[in-house]
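Readers of this paper often ask what the protein records in our data store actually look like. Such a record has a labelled line for the sequence and another for the backbone structure tokens. Nothing more is needed to write down the fold, since each code stands for a local backbone conformation. The record that follows is passed on verbatim for readers who wish to inspect the format.
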Amino acid sequence: MPLVNISILSGKSPEYIKAVGDSINSAVIETMGFPMDDRYQIIHEVDSERLQLQGRDGDRVMMHLVMRAGRSNESKQAFFQKSGGEFSGKSRNSARKCNDYNF
């Protein structure tokens, strides 16, 4: 399993944080074929002025994925496409249930 560093805005609920981690983990497993029981994530909560994404001032998530060589470019591209789709689906719904911000 790759090591995934995830940065989110400070002050999110435990449910929101779990939804983000679960979504990224699901995308890794489905697109890269890692085992279900491998999960290496570090989730950082960051003040909004320290999580800068090209002038966006709404909710945002930034991730950094580190893994050994050997995965195809196709599987990497599928991961990033899947993780974006997960955020627009499952994580957003979980965030709504928590009365929190959306992706």
